[in-house]
Amino acid sequence: MRQHLGIVGDRYFAQPAHRDASVTVMAAESLPRDVSPDVDLRQTRRNILLRGIDIDAYIGWTIELDSGDGPVVLALNRAARPCAWMDAVIGPGAQRALRGKGGVRCTPLSDGVLRVGRASFRVVEQPISRVNKVAGRRHG
Description:
Elements: E1 23-27, H1 41-44, E2 48-50, E3 62-66, E4 72-79, H2 85-89, H3 94-98, E5 104-108, E6 120-125, H4 128-139
Parallel strand pairs: 1-2
Antiparallel strand pairs: 1-5, 3-4, 3-6, 4-5
């Protein structure tokens, strides 16, 4: 993965129109298995699949993933909205099943390597508005 460019070899790598969305992260629990039990990451056009993390809840945050080769920092920019293509590749109803939980479009903020398998997840920075709300509750 290359800072601000995306995943080396990916179709969106270094594409100016996709710099803020060159990597897509999705929660494994969001895969629409009721549509097709065989669905996996390849059919969703998502790059990274996490288990046990509601990644859609972290939009606006900065996170760090480390699969053993050092941390990769990602800015979680916006929701990845599923398109009608999902119905064609996964099965009828997939687009609807992924609505609101289709993953997050990200910008890599560091160079690094992510490998298939276990990885650690850490929040690096919360959105400013969320930090202010939390701070207000503590002092209020």
